[in-house]
Amino acid sequence: MSVNAPDDRIVVMAEDLTVQLGGLPVLRGVSLTVHQGEAVALLGGNGSGKSTLVRSLLRLTPIERGRVELFGTEQSQFTQWSRIGYVPQRSPVGLSRAKVKEVVGSGRLGRRRPFLPASAADRAAVRAALETVRLADRADDELTHLSGGQQQRVLIARALVGEPELLVLDEPTAGVDLEHQQILADVLATLLDRGLAVLVVLHEVGPLSPLIHRAVVLREGRVIHDGTLPEALHSHVDDLHEYEPPLRAHWLDGAVAPDDHRSGGER
Ligand SMILES: Nc1ncnc2c1ncn2[C@@H]1O[C@H](COP(=O)(O)OP(=O)(O)OP(=O)(O)O)[C@@H](O)[C@H]1O
Fold first, then answer.
1. What is the 3-state secondary structure (H, E, C) of 157-213?
2. What's the mean pLDDT when you consider all of the chain?
3. Looking at ligand 1, which atom is closest to the CA of residue 53?
4. Per the database record, which ranges form the ABC transporter domain (predicted)?
5. Considering only the top CATH level, what class is 10-96+166-259?
6. How far is the CA of 169 from the centre of ligand 1 (A)?
7. Which value does ipTM take for this structure?
8. Could you report the per-residue pLDDT of 31-89, keeping only the tens digit for each?
9. Ligand 1: which of 51, 60, 204, 222 to mutate, judged by most atoms within 8 Å of the beta carbon?
10. Does the predicted model carry a pTM greater than 0.90?
């Protein structure tokens, strides 16, 4: 699995971020950079602030103090959101009748001409994204007919179809078996070879380990490690062991989704 070295261009720069939720501090002075071509893993125990950090970088959660630059532009001035693909934590809710190609195609809406059907370029982009995640043969299947690991790859294809330069993934391996984690690792290796930057929240690094250039570990909303993955695993093993799958789950818009929507009516 060969991965190019990152280059000097900074894709994400966060400085001294402080975020409060429900009146409580969730991030306390967090700084982080991601370079073009770099894979950064965001690690830490339950509730350490990983998802909040990702969401505040993407302007989905308001920042109390500090600043974020995306591709060299102050976040408040940034408008080129198609340069970023975001895969939130997977949830069982919604889109249950949608076909794989429709889910992936929805990631293209930002690039589509308004009120016109998908163009040949849109359809080709959907095909290419599904080929990248190795699911081209499942385009016409319903999303729910796929395994959890395959659904995760559909969501990655959805994030890729807009042709982003930065891919942000929140726990893509949660609940995914080892075989599918390995496929995911191969997909991410392909993307890194193409020069994408990857920021990935993980609780277990597993087959993704060889891809990770840098690991950032959070504890109680603070960065306690920003360095190599082996150092992180050696020095902060306790932070990485206390993990249970989150109860809360974001769907495509990051909304909170209670479990009882599982069999429910969002069609
Ligand atoms: N909307 C909210 N209102 C109030 N508190 C919140 C909200 N969202 C998250 N929190 C709290 O903020 C803290 C950090 O949550 P966050 O989801 O960022 O952690 P995490 O490291 O991603 O955890 P996990 O691994 O469990 O997903 C937690 O204590 C959580 O309960």
1. HHHHCCCCCEEEEECCCCCCCHHHHHHHHHHHHHHHHCCCEEEEECCCCHHHHHHCC
2. 82
3. 18
4. 12-245
5. alpha beta
6. 16
7. 0.95
8. 999 999 999 999 998 889 999 999 999 998 999 999 999 999 999 999 888 899 988 88
9. 51
10. no
Q: 99: pLDDT confidence band, cut at 50, 70 and 90?
A: confident
Residue of 17, 20, 50, 224 to test ligand 1 pocket, by largest number of atoms within 8 Å of CB: 50
In the chain, what are the domain boundaries? 10-96+166-259
What mean pLDDT do residues 133-138 have?
A: 94
State the average pLDDT over residues 94-117: 71
Whether 46 is in the pocket of ligand 1, judged by its Cβ within 6 Å, is yes
- N- to C-terminal Cα separation, the chain: 40
